[in-house]
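Hi R.,

Here's the chain you asked about this morning:
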Amino acid sequence: MAGGVNRKISAASARAHTRTTKQSGPSFKLPSGIFTKILLVLSAGVLAWAYQAIQPPLPKTCGSPDGPPVSASRIKLKDGRHLAYKEHGVPLDAAKYKIVFIHGFDSCRHDAVVANTLSPEIVEALGVYIVSIDRPGYGESDPNPKRTVQSLPLDIEELADQLGLGSKFYVIGFSMGGQVIWSCLKYIPHRLAGAALLAPVVNYWWPGFPTNLSTEAYYQQLPQDQWALGVSHYAPWLTYWWNTQKWFPSSSAIAHNADIFSSEDKKLLPQIISATRNHAALVRQQGEYESLHRDLMIGFGTWEFSPMDLGNPFPNNQGSVHLWHGDEDLLVPVSLQRYIAQQLPWVHYHELPGAGHMFPHAPGMSDNIVKALLVGEK
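And here is the predicted structure, written out as tokens:
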């Protein structure tokens, strides 16, 4: 029987046989600084996207090759823009009283509630002529990218001169158009025979308000409107993006949210909708930025004056200023109007119990407003 063979294995050899062999794959190293370059490219892409997102489209100006046709009567202003208007009441050459009506937010010259609902008896008895305008960017009035708090009163003055309204005329404004009346009292008081502000929109950032009062009123709004107006005031360059993005709710007025209307307003809405159905498409036809968004930026931006600092434009009682407001207005808190009226004792303040923001559409209201303004009848 054959014998076994004894072998001695060295420690080094044993380690070599028992060590697991590491398989090395192909190595890949990024060039130096590539991560920094990738981050820069991504950042540039995000910034480019953000820039494009906040840039509003160009308006489709009436009469331009890609814009709506011109159908309204218009004047050409000194700066080349056109201002559209509509005439109501008795013929101008037979009129005793001439009134310029300024429409509100998201509306146009056809939405001249006082002219549309004033009784024929009042029109004829007093000899009332009313001209309503499309504010810049609305209807068929050219947009004004340089629009300021002062620019529209100067446009109105030009309109009065070109139409021949005389040295003095009356102004009536509703809602956002009512806010414009404060600018008329500031910049063209010498042209006014009287003024009426109907549920005028208030800027929460006017410096004349006590902070606690304006803050309390501001937070009475729907949260989405607090954000929308805050963006318009603090970051106006984001106004277009905020009101067109889909992540958060934007302005309730732009979205036609019924929650902004009081119970009395809702009773009036069917007749309002019926009256606006035929011209609703005209309001925003030139684009929302130079109409709705510009309204927010100007109306709630930083003003160069406060209405509460205005002096009486009619110190010798040769005219009067009237402010009408409903105490159930859910859009414009009545507390702010009360404060303004307290600060300006020369303003005739009419507070309407139970009325909402749309009270001028109520039966008989236009007659009351016009008679108080023109002949002092209460």
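One quick note: The two ends are 140 Å apart (CA to CA).

Cheers,
M.
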